[in-house]
């Protein structure tokens, strides 16, 4: 990726970067892992209580309940990434944590689904917190060591995820779904305080302007297309409201691409994305989208007993904890191992390995896992390894292709791809389930056809991602990761 940055306000010599584990680095990592624990409470925890949220707000649009924060994150990420490069990563990270905490309180007190989604939109700022933790690591660590630390920071929060489902399963039965948002708001407040006290201020910034209009138009365009996918299944694909949302979304995306993306400092410089980075982003958008959609499906499968004879369902003792707790080890394993491997062979190979595991897990779920809890747990574990590997490798790929002063902007592109993939696949899955509902004993339920079609689509996404990852492996052949910053190469 060409270096299109302006002159930086500070150039850090390589000697100032950490190249190994010290007490100070461990302190930074501990705080940044805490930040990502908060991100998990925003993005993953609501997945555990989707059936309760669906009943509380009397809606079939589970994708909005689950993915509205991620959708908002796709809008927040490029804006906050650019802002962080200009004004400092620590400052923007603290602001995102405060906004996400306020969003948790709004969702907690929401009287209807409209207010709830508004709270989730505010919580979407947490999506930016994830990529800012990676950008901060690149600020303080040498490139090669940073790949290992990135794996720890992006996946270390999964240690909390091991016990989280077991705790939430008990707590939500006692206190209701609201408990999830109390925890999220509390973590946001604590994380903001520790970031302010422990993380050093950014020494690498770059002059520039923030294209707020471009970010709003781009985000609005994405939202319009996804609203069409969501509402089309309920009101009809050719009904006025869904079609109007689609038209407005497409027009906004066209205006952004042909007009606003050509301004001197666009919120995302699509024309400056190298072929290598573009291939990596394409892999991330399909792979993480498939994983996140499967995560949402698991929550619905847990709510159905195989004894109901629907052809799916994995309800059983401690099913929530087994499906979301034990596989958290897979996220840590995938992220940490991917970071370690990347220092030797580059981040493309861990990306390929993650996709392979995701494909195997999806195929197994499609054949026997949808109605068998032990097999479903194994598949969830494999998919979690996939998630850890894809996210860590995506960030590592972006980080070695971007100069230090543009880490926030380029890392935000990875997060946008994660968000777009996650939201798109969740809405597509929701549309599949909605279109294949059946009535059993007077109650509308998901059909076996719908569930297995859902899994098949996720599996196809993994398979299709193998195409760009093959070209990526060829492009990255012979590439050696060094501790020389990209801007000096």
UniProtKB/TrEMBL annotation:
InterPro entries xrefs: MFS, MFS_dom, MFS_trans_sf
One Pfam entry name: MFS_1
Subcellular location(s) per record: Cell membrane
Cellular component terms (Gene Ontology): plasma membrane
Molecular function GO labels: transmembrane transporter activity
SUPFAM superfamilies given in the database record: MFS general substrate transporter (SSF103473)
Protein name per the record: Putative MFS family arabinose efflux permease
Organism, as annotated: Nonomuraea fuscirosea
Membrane spanning stretches: 25-50, 62-80, 92-110, 116-138, 145-163, 175-198, 210-231, 237-260, 272-294, 314-341, 348-369, 375-398, 410-433, 453-473
Membrane topology, as annotated: Multi-pass membrane protein
Residue ranges constituting the Major facilitator superfamily (MFS) profile domain according to the UniProt record: 25-477
Record key words, sorted: Membrane, Transmembrane, Transmembrane helix
Predominant place of localization: membrane
């Amino acid at each position: 990726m060409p270096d299109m940055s302006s002159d930086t306000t500070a150039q850090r010599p390589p000697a100032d970067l950490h190249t190994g584990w010290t007490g100070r680095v461990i302190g930074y990592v501990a705080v940044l892992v805490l930040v990502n624990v908060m991100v998990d409470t925003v993005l993953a925890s609501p997945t555990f209580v989707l059936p309760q949220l669906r009943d509380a707000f009397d809606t079939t649009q589970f994708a909005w309940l689950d993915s509205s924060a991620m959708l908002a994150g796709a809008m927040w990420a490029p804006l906050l990434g650019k802002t962080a490069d200009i004004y400092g990563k620590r400052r923007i990270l603290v602001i995102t944590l405060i906004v996400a905490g306020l969003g948790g309180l709004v969702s907690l007190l929401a009287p209807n689904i409209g207010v709830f989604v508004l709270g989730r939109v505010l919580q979407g700022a947490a999506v930016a917190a994830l990529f800012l933790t990676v950008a901060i690591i690149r600020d303080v660590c040498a490139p090669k060591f940073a790949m290992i630390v990135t794996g720890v920071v992006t996946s270390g929060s999964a240690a909390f995820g091991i016990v989280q489902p077991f705790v939430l399963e008990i707590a939500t039965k006692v206190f209701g779904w609201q408990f999830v948002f109390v925890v999220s708001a509390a973590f946001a407040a604590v994380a903001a305080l520790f970031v302010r006290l422990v993380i050093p201020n950014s020494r690498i910034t770059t002059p520039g302007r923030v294209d707020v209009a471009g970010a709003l138009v781009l985000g609005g365009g994405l939202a319009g297309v996804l609203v069409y996918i969501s509402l089309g299944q309920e009101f009809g694909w050719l009904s006025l409201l869904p079609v109007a949302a689609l038209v407005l979304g497409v027009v906004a995306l066209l205006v952004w691409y042909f007009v606003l993306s050509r301004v001197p400092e666009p919120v995302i410089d699509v024309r400056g994305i190298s072929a290598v980075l573009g291939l990596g982003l394409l892999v991330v958008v399909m792979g993480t989208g498939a994983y996140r959609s499967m995560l949402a499906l698991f929550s619905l499968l847990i709510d159905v007993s195989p004894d109901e004879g629907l052809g799916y369902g994995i309800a059983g003792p401690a099913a929530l904890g087994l499906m979301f707790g034990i596989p958290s080890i897979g996220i840590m394993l995938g992220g940490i191992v991917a970071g370690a491997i990347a220092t030797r062979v580059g981040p493309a190979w861990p990306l390929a390995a993650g996709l392979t595991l995701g494909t195997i897990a999806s195929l197994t779920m499609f054949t026997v896992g949808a109605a068998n809890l032990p097999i479903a747990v194994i598949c969830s574990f494999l998919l979690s390894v996939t998630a850890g590997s894809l996210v860590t490798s995506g960030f590592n790929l972006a980080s070695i292709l971007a100069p230090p002063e543009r880490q926030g902007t380029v890392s935000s592109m990875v997060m946008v791809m994660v968000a777009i993939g996650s939201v798109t696949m969740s809405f597509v899955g929701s549309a599949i389930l909605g279109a294949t509902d059946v009535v059993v004993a007077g109650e509308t339920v998901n059909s076996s056809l719908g569930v297995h079609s859902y899994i098949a689509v996720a599996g196809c996404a993994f398979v299709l991602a193998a195409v760009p990852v093959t070209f990526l492996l060829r492009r990255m052949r012979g590439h050696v990761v060094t501790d020389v910053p990209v801007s000096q190469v």
